[in-house]
Specification:
It contains 21 helices and two strands. The longest helix is centred in the N-terminal third of the chain and has 27 residues, at 76-102. Helix 3 runs antiparallel to helix 4. The protein has a two-stranded antiparallel ribbon with strand order 1-2. With 451 residues, it is mostly helical.
């Protein structure tokens, strides 16, 4: 839940916790975002298998800055506490993002992002139509921060399953996922500044657009089973429509069509997060992920700063520039579709998006239901099933896509939780004769264990 809560807080902080100052003509919010991204990169580069102290330290820094920030009036003191708080939040976000990718299955990722999407829709509706009062500016941010810290505190290192090494083909898949991630934020850097939440009647159309695409995403993934490739193409067309209506707004005499398309383009947000999370789980090692994170932070100058600076200095030029950016970006991505489809959206892994990561083995566990009382994690249950099936450590590693050292770590933790010391004791615990040799177990014996 950590990433879901952070994304909801992301929406609240942008709407209800303004910085309200400029430094050398640059928005304080832009500077805070850069500090946030740099801190996120630093934590990612420092990431190791023992990450708890790193994340908990980040959470402490986040609270030290953001709790006072929530109660302070707009000004430079608030800006300084914001720098501290968002630096800590950058580290927390790195942990939350890794949890979303590496400790969740695909079904959990999808329903998590849909929950976030509709939650953000209601936050935006409340902000624009009803209230800017204490609930939105004090209570809700503090509740979200508390829940986020609780989730980070509950993180378990053994739940994170990451490849030790990634192949060249893996790298191509992850690079393409990052390309779509970056492209979305390039477009959003311009589109996000066009919708004005202070225009209540017009902004209501933005919320309607968000609702429409939320329903569409849910229908596509739960029933229609279209590829995410088709949804990305739809996002590019909607972005071009957004740019067109932004330019034509003065002639139309209404901002409502532009706001509607702005809401429709919000589909790119859950789409890029979900695609990125699934791709990380399928392709990434931590080494590869660190490299991609470094690339993204370097390119953040391209993705975020230009739109913010343009909105601050020459807002009248923003609609035309937005149209040019969306058309150019969409055309480039359409021309590169054969490559992105081959390495990212092809049948190599796209079917994984319609099932959880561990369907077959989870079904075995559900059939026998013999591990529930021991409080094992899903991965430990998988390892236990394969150990009871007389698989060697190397065979288990190959079947689960893990390294032998990772399987060894899970086996040791499994034995610790079961309060045993060997595989012989494991078989004895689940009803096998004490002198049984695991290597000689037949399918019939394994079947009897299951029964």
């Amino acid at each position: 839940m950590a990433y879901a809560i952070e994304l909801i807080f992301f929406s609240v902080r942008g709407l209800c916790l303004p910085v309200g100052v400029k430094v050398l003509g640059i928005s304080g919010w832009t500077i805070i975002q850069l500090v946030h991204m740099i801190a996120s990169l630093v934590v990612m580069l420092l990431w190791s298998e023992k990450f708890k102290p790193l994340l908990r330290g980040s959470a402490v820094i986040m609270l030290a800055g953001l709790v006072p920030y929530v109660f302070m009036p707009v000004g430079y003191l608030r800006f300084l506490f914001g720098l501290i708080g968002y630096a800590g939040l950058g580290g927390v976000v790195t942990g939350a993002r890794c949890g979303y990718a590496f400790a969740s299955n695909n079904a959990e990722r999808f329903f998590g992002i849909i929950f976030v999407y509709f939650s953000v829709m209601f936050v935006r509706l409340a902000h624009s139509q009803w209230t800017d009062g204490v609930f939105m500016t004090r209570i809700l941010p503090l509740v979200l921060l508390a829940l986020l810290c609780l989730c980070i505190y509950k993180f378990r290192e053994e739940d994170f399953e990451v490849k030790d090494e990634a192949t060249k083909l893996d790298a191509k898949g992850l690079y393409w996922a990052f390309a779509f991630f970056i492209v979305y934020f390039i477009i959003d850097g311009y589109i996000g500044d066009l919708a004005d939440s202070s225009l209540k009647a017009e902004y209501l159309f933005t919320v309607i657009g968000i609702a429409i695409t939320g329903i569409l995403l849910t229908a596509v993934f739960c029933g229609l089973h279209f590829s995410t490739w088709h949804l990305w193409n739809l996002f590019f067309f909607l972005s071009i429509g957004m740019g067109l209506f932004a330019v034509l707004a003065p002639r139309l005499g209404s901002l409502k069509p532009m706001h509607l398309f702005c809401g429709l383009t919000y589909m790119g947000w859950p789409l890029c997060i979900y695609t990125m999370g699934c791709a990380q789980r399928r392709f990434a090692s931590y080494k590869l992920l660190k490299k991609c994170t470094l690339i993204y932070v370097i390119l953040s100058v391209v993705t975020k700063l230009p739109g913010n600076i343009l909105a601050n200095l020459t807002p009248d030029a923003l609609p035309l520039v937005t149209l040019c950016i969306t058309v150019t970006t969409a055309l480039v991505m359409f021309m590169l579709s054969p490559f992105s489809y081959r390495y990212l959206f092809s049948s190599i892994w796209i079917s994984d998006l319609y099932k959880s990561d561990m369907v077959s083995l989870q079904k075995k566990v559900e059939d026998v239901d013999r591990f529930e009382k021991y409080g094992l994690t899903p991965r430990q249950k998988e390892v236990a099933v394969l150990l009871l099936a007389a698989k060697t450590r190397r065979q288990i590693a190959g079947e689960l896509g893990l390294s032998e050292s990772t399987v060894k770590m899970h086996t040791a933790e499994l034995y610790r939780r079961l309060n045993i010391n060997s595989r012989v004791e494991l078989f004895r615990l689940f009803g096998v004769a004490e002198d049984a040799d695991p290597a000689d177990l037949s399918e019939n014996k394994i079947s009897s264990i299951s029964k």
